[in-house]
Structures are given as structure tokens and as C-alpha cells.
Design brief:
378 residues; 5-stranded mixed sheet; disordered N terminus
């Protein structure tokens, strides 16, 4: 079989010197095989079809759709999709993983709260490569693929394709102390919400004429019990004496004028040393403080706002910090006053201060230095 090796960008038009000299253009409408490894093209004279040879992927990307009762697992194998269904129990997951193996495989799943904890724990214990993605990413990928169906199989397949097409970061399991503090923070946020509800109910009863004393006493007893539990959980958020890095990080965040102990402890509890964020912009976007707009041409003029993704509890803490920082932090105060002078309303200016505080918190943690207003000014 005769072959002509062409360099990338070579002229293969009918008037090309290569083609006219050989006189074989009509017979050389051949298969052009892209050699990814060598980046060369081969023009073969006895075939009339185009084929493409690609390198075999380094990993098998395993998409896992998690639900309360079972896991739906899909992965490509020999140009076909293989499906496995496993009960969402540690024993069933371990048995399947021992049979399936982890060598050369990358597992992708959505962040589904408590339902995915057993799977993540088992995969991490086996030393598997795991990525936990935002559900918004998989929804967007399904739209890119023009999928019209929404079911567990399609979701697992979408996750597998997402892992193959994007460079996803590997999930890092928090240590035991971080895990305990995160659970304490979640319980604390729930009890604080319950505390506000009980106080509002007692406030409403105070305006009743002759309220039922049994009902009032019951609410007061529950409120007292909730407040005691809140005090215990707040102590759980304090880093232990032997956690020098966490204690130092809390002090660095507290060095920012306007940021108090509770906010600093919550930041360390949820984000540790902020290793999952590459830049301050990424962190501000994660907590939902990055600005967003919806514009198209001259007719579509959507309302500008912040994304409001992430934890609303963190934004609430930063809101209270911003109210203090706009008075006592020179840089935040200057930002607030400058926006007010430009005609922005107070809420927009205060949101900008929240955004600035989020970036300052990221900066002091990643730099390992206390807050220096003069450094920010320069």
C-alpha cells in the first residue's frame, strides 16, 4: 500500500504541486486519519472513508447518580454504556467497589447532602479518585448535550461525560475535627432559626388578652432548652488547643476591622484554610456575592444583582460584619461613601462592602498575615 505523508497545513487542493505531479487526485480521495500522538496526516490511496484514531483515555469516568435508597452507576466500556445499580448502604457500596476496582477510574457524583456521605466515605477510604460537582454543572452539561429526558440513568451518564470533558478537581475529605465542626455549624444554624421562631411566638402571645399559661410555659421551656443547646454547639466551633493552624487562622480573620469571632469561626469551620479556592474572586462567587447581569442586544435588560449562591448563613454573617466595617474599617468606609456619592443606594453599597470583606478574609488566610489597612491602600 502506497502512502504519502503530509505535514499539517499541507496543500491538498487539485492544483497543489503534490497532487498535479502525481496525477492521482481523482483516485486519492482517500481516508485522512488524524494521528493524535504524532500530529501527522496520512493520505491513503485505496480507501474512500474518513476515520479518526484517538488515544485511549487514561481514565474510565464513572458517573454516579445518588438517591436515598440506591446508586445508579454508568460508565463507558468498549463503545457501550454499562449500568450498575447498588443499594445506598456501606456494605453494598464496599462489595461493588471491591469487585469493580478503582485502578484507572475516576468517580463523579453530585453534592447531594447527607445521601452521598456513605459513598464519599467508602471511596475515600479505598483511595479512589473522586470529584464532587455542583448540581448546576451537571444541569448545564445536560443542556449542552441537548438531552430531553431527565432520569437517574441520564443523570449518571451526564456526570460521566462531564468528568471526561472537564478537568474536575479531586475531592479532599475533611478530617474528623473539620467534619465535627461542620456538623455542629449545621445544627447550630437550624437551632438558631428555631430560636427566632419561638421568640416570635412568645412575642405574639404577649399581645393576647389572657393567653393560655400552659402554652406560654411550654414555649418558654422549649426556648430555654434550645438556647442551652446553642451554647454547647457554639463551643464546638472553637478550635481545640492542639489545633494551632485553625486557631491562628481565626485570629488572622479577626484582625480585619468589623469581623468578629463568630464569623471567623464559621469561616474556618466551613472553608478551613481556603485551599479549595484559587482566587479571592472564586471565593466571593462561591458564597454568592459576585455581581451578575442579564443583558442581550438592545431589548433585554435584566436586573443586576448578586448570584446568592452558597450558604445564606455566611452572607448573613458578612452582612452584620459589613454594617460594622462601614463605620470602623477605613477601607470599607471609603468604599461605602464613594458608592453613595455616585448615587448608589445604601443596600448596593453595603453589598459591595460584604464583597470586599469576603476578599479580605481570603487574602489574610492565604497570605498568612494579619490585616493591614495600609497594605490594602497601596
Amino acid at each position: 500500500m502506497r502512502k504519502w505523508a503530509l505535514k499539517p497545513g499541507a496543500d491538498v487542493s487539485p492544483r497543489s504541486p503534490l497532487i498535479t505531479e502525481t496525477g492521482q487526485f481523482n483516485r486519492l480521495k482517500a481516508c485522512v486519519t488524524m494521528m493524535v500522538a504524532s500530529d501527522e496526516f496520512l493520505l491513503i490511496n485505496n480507501h474512500h472513508k474518513i476515520s479518526k484514531t484517538m488515544q485511549a483515555p487514561r481514565h474510565i469516568y464513572v458517573g454516579i447518580d445518588v438517591s436515598k435508597d440506591e446508586l445508579v452507576i454508568l460508565y463507558p466500556m468498549q463503545k457501550r454504556w454499562r449500568k450498575v445499580q447498588v443499594l445506598n448502604t456501606i456494605f453494598a457500596i464496599t462489595s461493588w467497589l471491591n469487585e469493580f476496582g478503582i485502578q484507572g477510574k475516576h468517580f463523579i457524583l453530585e453534592a447531594t447532602g447527607p445521601y452521598s456521605q456513605r459513598l464519599i466515605h467508602t471511596l475515600n477510604g479505598a483511595g479512589a479518585s473522586v470529584s464532587v460537582v455542583n448540581p448546576a454543572q451537571s444541569r448545564a452539561m445536560a443542556k449542552v448535550l441537548l438531552k430531553t429526558n431527565k432520569n437517574d440513568d441520564q443523570d449518571a451518564q451526564t456526570l460521566s461525560i462531564l468528568g471526561e470533558k472537564l478537568e474536575l478537581s479531586t475531592y479532599k475529605m475533611p478530617n474528623d475535627m473539620q467534619k465535627k465542626r461542620k456538623e455542629a455549624f449545621s445544627a447550630l444554624a437550624s437551632l438558631q432559626k428555631q430560636e427566632r421562631q419561638l421568640k416570635n411566638q412568645l412575642h405574639a402571645f404577649s399581645y393576647h388578652v389572657g393567653p393560655n399559661p400552659v402554652a406560654v410555659q411550654a414555649l418558654q421551656e422549649v426556648l430555654q432548652s434550645v438556647q442551652q443547646a446553642i451554647q454547647k454547639l457554639e463551643k464546638e466551633l472553637n478550635p481545640e488547643q492542639d489545633e494551632d493552624e485553625a486557631r491562628q487562622t481565626v485570629e488572622q480573620i479577626r484582625s480585619i476591622n468589623g469581623v468578629g469571632s463568630k464569623t471567623a469561626q464559621a469561616m474556618v469551620t466551613l472553608f478551613g484554610n481556603f485551599q479549595h479556592f484559587k482566587t479571592a474572586k472564586c471565593f466571593a462567587k462561591f458564597v454568592g456575592l459576585s455581581p451578575t447581569e442579564f443583558l442581550s442586544g438592545s431589548s433585554v435588560r435584566g436586573r443586576r444583582s448578586i448570584t446568592k449562591n452558597g450558604s445564606s448563613k455566611i452572607r448573613a454573617l458578612l452582612f452584620n460584619c459589613a454594617r460594622s466595617a462601614m463605620r470602623y474599617n477605613p477601607n470599607c468606609k471609603a468604599l461605602y461613601e464613594r458608592l453613595i456619592e455616585k448615587g448608589k443606594n445604601g443596600k448596593v453599597a453595603l453589598t459591595a462592602v460584604m464583597h470586599k470583606l469576603a476578599r479580605l478574609i481570603f487574602g489574610v488566610v492565604r497570605s498568612g498575615r494579619n490585616y493591614d489597612p495600609n497594605f490594602v491602600k497601596n
